[in-house]
Write a structure and sequence with these properties.
By secondary structure, this protein is of the alpha/beta class. It is 38% helix and 22% strand. The longest helix is centred in the middle third of the chain and has 18 residues. It is globular. The structure holds N-(iminomethyl)-L-glutamic acid and fe (iii) ion. It catalyses: 4-imidazolone-5-propanoate + H2O = N-formimidoyl-L-glutamate.
């Protein structure tokens, strides 16, 4: 006996290499897990409840594997300054940019951070997102970083949404450490990573590896601290220049390197060999008017798995739509529809180190997204239209 069955649906299971299509399919859930998936005619056994999907498409619940959802304030003023000719790097070097969000985030109470984050998470959910990653990185001191991570945990507790919390204390050098970048990296490695791990507040550790932020030695310190505390790692890398982030990430066995607009083919091949995932963030390319593009051809040639995420944050990607990112990944990077959709499901799960979701397959979490569309390409095609008609998290 199943708890619930969704029938009269077309399925994109993401099994195998493509979309894993099943016409006239059904999905059955038991105890929050997928118990059966396949053509309706073959559905075994009865269910306590049956949902007629009216021919809708069912995908695995979408996964936004890279967001900075929790922060104080916004940067609309900086957007206007950039329109008047200033650039992102210059604003950051002058103490604005990420550092202005740090000031606003440090000044905000936990409840205020949560209240601001809730509607953002709901906006992502409305499109069929069932798992998000949320990074810290606007505290840059122990207590403020832990506060951001606690808010991430509370989002997951208050909403029907799975939240993965990532410590990104190595996001920028805080003003107190101006000119002492390596000292701050040591503080992150020796104090903040251990504190987040001890409090059980971090599922992963991230480092902004970039000429604007942390170099190889700094990143290595933090990545080694993550490993000592049993936490998987990720890098923001090769975003503004070829910093060798892909190769560094491969060397440390990180789950993913994200951005990669300037990554070189040898680094990408090393990532593929190490089993990492390239997380593509077209919203940041677009919003910062970056002209370089990630080397998709090199990623394909290397067999490197690609994920797609919003990078939602106030400075470089104020984008609360994962469906829009699908469109941008196709239009700006020329991903195929299959690559883009695998990028927000099965490969996004891999970028978070999660093997229990991202496909429709027995045994995995029953996280589903239902869409009123005629074909999956529509999810990448429409701009500013949300065809999501339902969302299921752990079978409900
Ligand atoms: O992913 N690259 C660094 N971090 C963010 C930008 C954060 C900000 O500008 O506030 C990113 O693009
Ligand atoms: Fe980011």
């Amino acid at each position: 006996m199943f708890d619930r069955v969704w029938r009269n649906a077309r399925l994109a299971t993401m099994q195998g290499e493509g979309l894993g299509l099943v016409e006239d399919g059904a999905v059955a859930a038991r105890d929050g897990r997928i118990a059966w998936v396949g053509p309706r005619a073959a559905l075994p056994g009865p269910a306590r409840e049956t949902v007629d999907c009216g021919g809708a498409w069912i995908l695995p619940g979408l996964i936004d594997c890279h967001t900075h959802l929790v922060f104080g304030g916004d940067r609309a003023d900086e957007f206007e300054r950039r329109l008047a000719g200033e650039d992102y790097a210059a604003i950051l070097k002058a103490g604005g940019g990420i550092l202005s969000t740090v000031r606003a985030t440090r000044a905000a109470e936990e409840e205020a951070l949560l209240a601001a984050a809730l509607p953002r998470a709901r906006a992502l959910m409305a499109e069929g997102v069932t798992t998000i990653e949320v990074k810290s990185g606007y505290g840059l001191e122990r207590e403020a970083e832990l506060r951001q991570l606690r808010v991430a945990r509370r989002l997951g507790a208050e909403l029907p949404l799975a939240v993965v919390a990532t410590l990104l204390a190595a996001h920028a050098v805080p003003p107190e450490y101006a000119g002492r970048r390596a000292d701050y990296a040591r503080l992150v490695a020796e104090e903040i990573v251990p504190a987040a791990a001890a409090a059980g507040l971090a599922d992963a550790v991230d480092v902004f590896h970039d000429p604007l932020a942390f170099d190889d030695a700094d990143a290595t310190l933090v990545l080694e601290a993550a490993r000592r505390h049993g936490l998987p790692a990720k890098l923001h890398g090769d975003q503004h220049a070829d910093a060798g982030s892909a190769a560094l990430g491969a060397h440390h066995g990180v789950l993913s390197v994200d951005h990669l607009e300037h990554a070189n083919p040898a680094g990408l091949a090393a990532m593929a060999a190490a089993g990492g995932v390239a997380v593509l963030l077209p919203g940041a390319t677009y919003f910062l008017r970056e002209t370089a593009r990630p080397d998709i051809a090199a990623m394909r040639a290397a067999g490197l798995r690609m994920a797609v995420a919003t990078d939602f944050n106030p400075g470089s990607s104020p984008a609360l739509s994962l469906l829009l990112m699908l469109n941008m990944a196709c239009t700006l990077y020329r991903l195929t529809v299959v690559e883009a959709l695998r990028g927000v499901t099965v490969n996004a799960a891999a970028a978070l180190g999660l093997s229990d979701r991202g496909r429709l397959e027995p045994g995995l979490r029953c996280d589903l997204a239902l869409y009123r569309i005629a074909r999956p390409a529509e999810l990448c095609y429409w701009i500013g239209h949300n065809p999501c008609i339902g969302r299921v998290v752990e079978g409900r």
